[in-house]
């Protein structure tokens, strides 16, 4: 029996593709991944629209050695729902490979993700460098700053994905990310980031109530971006069209 990896997009229950919805409706078991991101709607809204009961899949369930999702897919039609695109997170690729090794047929139904949605800022997607994440516990973490430094040296934009823990209702904000970078800069003194650095803060991008705000880091620190999920962009060298596009959000 098949295991469907289905992207839900970035908005609400209606952002699923037609192919994705048809796959969900013929599944016996439906899981919703619940630790790399969250949707801008409730599980109940998904259940009502899809006409299916949905089980929240926490990291411990998805990454377990004795995997419930894979075992169910050996005998039943199973859907694994993911906010954004289903294979944007490496843990989902791991689940896909493990299922294939155990003889489970796997189907991938793609959808929009944050990687493509950042084009709404006016910045050209193909000019982004390596994407990195800032974890909730980042006191001694330097990798995100290193990615910014390397991307900046090449004139590339940097997308920071901000960590979350839905179980504990903890979400890293744009403001937290800027403070992290300022602190890392103070420690390293490599001139990759300052209060004057132009940044783009994004909240709930792809939804009807998305916020995109561009400006100096010190100015974005004063802005309330509201509910999650947030991400932060530090532009590299910009084409004049990118500058004009970004100007819409200042």
Give an overview in words.
The strands form three sheets. The protein has a five-stranded parallel β-sheet, sandwiched between helices. 32% of the residues lie in helices and 21% in strands. It has two domains: 2-112, Tetrapyrrole methylase, N-terminal domain (Cobalt-precorrin-4 Transmethylase, domain 1, 3-Layer(aba) Sandwich), CATH 3.40.1010; 115-247, Methyltransferase, Cobalt-precorrin-4 Transmethylase, Domain 2 (2-Layer Sandwich). With 250 residues, it is an alpha/beta fold. A hairpin with a 7-residue loop joins strand 10 (198-203) and strand 11. It contains ten helices and twelve strands. The protein has helices at 18-25, 43-50, 59-62, 68-73, 90-101, 114-117, 143-153, 174-188, 217-220, 240-247; strands at residues 2-7, 29-33, 55-57, 78-82, 105-109, 132-134, 158-162, 164-165, 170-171, 198-203, 211-216, 230-234.
Short key terms for the protein model shown above:
Methyltransferase, Cobalt-precorrin-4 Transmethylase, Domain 2; 5-stranded mixed β-sheet; 5-stranded parallel β-sheet; Cobalt-precorrin-4 Transmethylase, domain 1; 12 strands; single chain; 250 residues; 10 helices; 32% helix
Summarize the structure.
This protein is of the alpha/beta class and about 250 residues long. The protein is about 30% helix and about 20% strand.
Q: Radius of gyration in whole Å, from Cα?
A: 19 Å
How does the major sheet shape up? 5 strands, parallel
Total domain count? 2
**Any idea what the CATH superfamily of the largest domain is called?**
Tetrapyrrole methylase, C-terminal domain
Number of helices: 10
Second-tier CATH architecture of the largest domain: 2-Layer Sandwich
Low-pLDDT parts are none
Number of strands: 12
**The CATH topology of the largest domain:** Methyltransferase, Cobalt-precorrin-4 Transmethylase, Domain 2
Q: What is the 3D shape?
A: elongated
Beginning-to-end CA distance, first to last residue: 51 Å
Mean pLDDT: 95
User: Class of the largest domain in CATH?
Assistant: Alpha Beta
The structure class reads alpha/beta
